[in-house]
Amino acid sequence: MTIRMIAEKCGCSTATVSKALNGAEDVSRETAERVRRVAAQLGYMPNAAARSMRTSRSYSFGVLFRDNADTGLAHEFFSGLLNGFKRQAEELGYDIFFISGRLGGRTIRYAEHARYRNCDGVFIANESYKKPEVRELADCGIPAVTIDYTYDGCASVQSDNYQGVRDLVRYIHGMGHRRIAFIHGEDTPVTDVRVASFRQTCRELGLDIPEAYVTEAVYCDPASCEAPTRRLLALETPPTCILYPDDTAYIGGRNEIYRQGLRIPEDISAAGYDGIDLSQILRPRLTTLKQNADLMGSSAARELVQAVEQGKDYIPRRIIIPGQVLPGETVGRAGETA
Amino acid sequence: MTIRMIAEKCGCSTATVSKALNGAEDVSRETAERVRRVAAQLGYMPNAAARSMRTSRSYSFGVLFRDNADTGLAHEFFSGLLNGFKRQAEELGYDIFFISGRLGGRTIRYAEHARYRNCDGVFIANESYKKPEVRELADCGIPAVTIDYTYDGCASVQSDNYQGVRDLVRYIHGMGHRRIAFIHGEDTPVTDVRVASFRQTCRELGLDIPEAYVTEAVYCDPASCEAPTRRLLALETPPTCILYPDDTAYIGGRNEIYRQGLRIPEDISAAGYDGIDLSQILRPRLTTLKQNADLMGSSAARELVQAVEQGKDYIPRRIIIPGQVLPGETVGRAGETA
DNA sequence: TTGTATGCGTTATCAT
DNA sequence: ATGATAACGCATACAA
């Protein structure tokens, strides 16, 4: 099935067929219709490789996603991100494929992989943005959009972590809590913003947060939250509410709290972050901040298409996507002077 | 960066460069080495589109994955499957992209999409195998491998659901349980096998399973397990152990059990299926059957490469991947005559 | 051992 | 409005 066969069947040239199929102006309406009818009837599909070679556009986006075992696609936030990106990209005519560091038994650099497949744009998420190889990809001339990180000259889509933590803390404050602790994730740009927002919001609310109330664990690692939780509960003046790095990590804190014979939220309140399904399935339902991963993904796709189609005229934008507090049942009402 | 530029730099023809790069026999060792050195130095990468057009091989696999909101990539079993497939496919030189029903604002059939991108093989998972469109894809002439389902003429990789349920039931029986109930998932080929295995294993063990002990819920839907759990607990002779459709669905049963003021496993035992991370994070740790999703994915990739490279000589195989009981803490010891 | 020539399917240019 | 033709980058059959 090539345009040549359609041309023969229609008694015209391949040039005319190509024009007709691509909606060019200089084709008579009747010819165009006839060509399209025959094409549809024969189940014609253009050959992506040939088109790509001729136009030097592949209508594909490369996706860089950390897949190294642990938390890759399995994390609901990232799978949501990818789903949103994929759906919108396809809607706009772009297929997506994965960029990886291995191909055919050889190690290749991300940028090489992207060039090899001629992708029109790249989507960078869930990677260590400090790795030179990642920076090389972002800078290699192919339009790129990054998630939760800004490279100079690249579009980026970011979850509003500042406002997210702020909303969550204010909600908890509104429930009467005055002694709020934050077990945050490991050191990343996202963590920095969240911790800064936490401290600033508490200050604005006139809350005094002892240093011991801000402590570190590891994202998505429940076990890493057990010791910090234990330490917080053992303080002379323990917090009345603990913020966890994310919904999954919260499970570790929850296990520790129960192990101490305490109840949630009667004895101690807790909140997560992300708003994954799990958070709403557990009883008591977790109070958390839902990140709009799907919207972040689809926004990234739209932005990337703009970057590709506007070429040199494109001015990189930074898009901030707000999240939303899911009240849940793990933050209880606390006495005003707790 | 094309072979032409390398040819100029090396003072030889493009044909020689092509041969040298592809390890042909009829090139002198010194020439080959020089060409490869220059290529590496210039950071040459072949153009995938050009190569694809010339060889009618794209070195890419299409992946059909249900992404319709709910449980797509978010499900750890499927993300594990995809990860395993992706890693192994890339190792063997094939990139992967997603086949979808939408492209450029138009609805296209899966088979069309696959042909458009010229993929060398397709990986079908997590789809309704009964849809004619899916069957069309499996039958369209492109080598295909399916997961947990057999199409005539297609390779397939299957989780050993028969043995899995059998091992799980026997483990539970070994813990002293004699009254075992099974809340299974909705009607699918996989469910059929699991239910059949459950009944047969129980029969072999001499267990009498009342009809009320086998009942239906929905995979990955905790809420759907609440009512069935309640009904089982309210029976005149309630089970001492309940099998759930999967680890996620178990959460619903767990919530209901706790709501009734019962303890796990002291008052009632329970088991899941899948062995996702969540199951090992919860306390008590869930007794479940871990499916080896990663191995299923990588096996599928190896098989698909065989199918592609052997062409007409390839004989479709069915590969069965065993799972493994994860003992956990939710199945307690029951009195021998319970 | 090396080089020349051709074609894969498509789009774009230019002539008709 | 239509068509002939070239070119995209690569691999290969065949000539040298």
Give an overview in words.
Two copies of one chain form a homodimer. The longest helix of chain A is centred in the last third of the chain and has 18 residues, at 293-310. With 338 residues, chain A is of the alpha/beta class. The first copy, chain A, folds into two domains: 60-159 and 292-324, 3-Layer(aba) Sandwich (Rossmann fold); 161-290, Response regulator (Rossmann fold, 3-Layer(aba) Sandwich). Chain A contains 13 helices and 14 strands. In chain A, α1 crosses α3, α6 (110-116) packs parallel to α7 (132-139) and α8 runs parallel beside α9. Chains A and B meet through α4, α5, β2, β3 and α6 of A and α4, α5, β2, β3 and α6 of B. The structure holds a DNA duplex (16 and 16 nucleotides).
The CATH C-level class name of the largest domain in chain A: Alpha Beta
Strand order of the largest sheet of chain A: 2-1-5-6-7-13
Q: Do you know the CATH topology of the largest domain in chain A?
A: Rossmann fold
The chain pair forming the largest interface, with residue counts per chain, is:
A-B, 54 and 54 residues
* Strand-residue proportion of chain A: 15-25%
Tally of separate domains of chain A: 2
Largest sheet of chain A: 6 strands, parallel
> How many beta-strand elements of chain A?
14
Q: Span from first to last CA of chain A?
A: 76 Å
The CATH superfamily of the largest domain in chain A appears as: Response regulator
Order of helices and strands of chain A: HHHHEHEEEHEHEEHEHEHEHEHEHEE
